[in-house]
Amino acid sequence: MAPAPTTIARALCAATRRLREAGIESPRAEARLLLRHVTGLAPELLVRERDRVLVADELARLEALVARRAEREPWAYLSGEREFWSLRLRVRPGVLVPRPETETLVEAPLAAFPERTAALRILDLGTGSGCLLAALLHEYPNAFGVGVDRSAEALAVAAENLEALGLRRRAALVRGDWGTALSGPFDLVVANPPYVASGELEALAPEVGRYEPRLALDGGPDGLSAYRALLPDLLRLLAAHGLACLEIGAGQAAALRALFAAAGFTVALRADLAGIARCLLLRRAARP
Prior knowledge:
By secondary structure, this protein is of the alpha/beta class. The protein has helices spanning about 10-20, 25-40, 45-50, 55-70, 75-80, 105-110, 130-140, 150-165, 205-210, 225-235, 255-260; strands at about 80-85, 85-90, 120-125, 145-150, 170-175, 185-190, 240-245, 265-270, 275-285. Helix 1 packs parallel to helix 4.
């Protein structure tokens, strides 16, 4: 007897069961996302067409995606995209997935430089997918930005995103180690450095620890190695009137405030939507 054809309803149940067994927190919701991705159907059509039989290609793609998600591969890598600052960005393995909390590094500059027509010179150190550079260039149509990353793979993704958003002509991408190959000054410097202490990497969620690039996560023994490396570049590259916005991890504010204050910066903090100090705002201290 031939097996019953796989309808959308049957596929949803099977995918939900597989994801639940894998420890996914919201298995039915994620199963729906996977089905939408494969079929292209809107949420209401998944319900209305629950008895539609999946064709062989759809079923094969769904099974492959469910298997990958059951291994805890991030959803952004499965779909190939992630929204950041209301911009749709391409994302793939080897590039850090943009997080909502990183949008704090866009909010802070917008508050500091309210004139949107300003011809700012922007530097994004460790640009990754280019999410910060793209968001800032989108908000400042007369700005020019430079994105730097050590990863050629990340720079390729950043270039794709800038091109897709119509921003490529106002940006330069450089492969390098932070700002060592650059000369300033820049009005605005942003960076989301790796800030997870090396000994804490194994405790990260599987989606992060297994799949996202360690280069973008490992902040050294105390999580602060990248900030020490950035310090001389910021002293050299930041304009006298400029602002540097650095993402930081929970519990790191006091140590980093002391580090940068001792180097001659005035330091302020901006919290994310969860109330966690997430953005370190640095300006050159006024000279007497």
